[in-house]
Amino acid sequence: METAIDIRRTGAQSIPEVCRLRQLCYWEDFYFLPRNVMSQSAEAQALAKWLEEDPGCNRLYGAFAGDRLIGYANAGWGQEPHEIAAGAVKAVELCNLFVARQWRGQGTGLLLLQAAAQDFARLGAEMLILSNWRSAASNGFYRALGGRLVGQQRRTYANGEQVVDFFAWQMDQLLHTLEQRVAPYLCGSAATDGLCKNGPTESGLR
To answer: How far apart are the C-alpha atoms of 180 and 13, rounded to whole Å?
Structure first.
C-alpha cells in the first residue's frame, strides 16, 4: 500500500525532530567536513531564535509520513553574493533542505522546495538562492534543477579546502521546473496533497 507523504509548514513543535534529522543527514551528506558542529540542543535554540526573529517570513516546512518527520526545509529573505550579481532583486534564501536517506528518490525534497518557493512567490519573491558544498551529492540535485552558479567561496579546514557554490533561480522558472518534476510522484488526482512512497527515482534528485 502506498504511503502518503504530507508536506506542510510547521513550527517550534517540530524543532526537536528537525535537529535530530539534521545531525543524522549532515554527516551523511557532508562527510568531508570536520566534526565541529553544534550540539542538538544548541541547534534547537538557534533554530527557535531564528523562527522568533521574524515569524512571518522565517519559515519551516516539514515532510511527514504519518506522524514521523522524514524531511524538512527552512527559508527566509536573503541576498548575496554581491546582491545576486548586482541585480538587487527580492530573493528568498533556502537555508537548509534535508531528507532522511531511506525516503530519498521519491520526490520529497522536490516538494519541500516547491512549498517554500510557492510560499515566498506569494510574498513577492522574484528569485530563490542558496549555498551548497560543491563536494556534496546534493550539489547535483540543485544543478539538475537548473540552478545558475552566481558565486563561489573557498573555505580552508584542517583536513583541506572546500568550495561552497552559490545558486540562484528566477522564481517563475523554478516553479515551472518544479511543477514538471513533482508531477510523476503525485498520488491519485491533482487534489491529492501527499506523495506516493513508491514514486520513480530520478538521478540527481531527492
So the answer is: 32
142/20 Cα distance (integer angstroms): 24
CA–CA gap between residue 204 and residue 169 (Å, rounded): 18
> Buried (b) or exposed (e) across 28-66, using 16+ Cβ within 10 A?
ebbeebeeeeeeeeebbeebeeebeeeeeebbbbbbbbe
Q: How far apart are the C-alpha atoms of 55 and 51, rounded to whole Å?
A: 5
DSSP letters spanning 88-152: ---EEEEEEEEE-GGGTTSSHHHHHHHHHHHHHHHTT--EEEEEEETTSTHHHHHHHTTPEEEEE
Helix (H) or strand (E) run with residue 168 in it: strand 160-170
Sheet holding 148-157, edge to edge: 6-10, 59-65, 68-78, 91-99, 127-133, 160-170, 148-157
pLDDT in tens, 8-35: 999 999 999 999 999 889 888 888 877 7
Residues with Cβ within 8 Å of residue 83, at least 6 apart in sequence: none
φ, ψ of residue 149 in degrees (nearest 5)? -75, 115
Q: How far apart are the first and last CA of the chain?
A: 21
- Residue 85 backbone phi and psi in degrees, to 5: 50, 45
What's the pTM value of the predicted model, to 2 decimals? 0.85
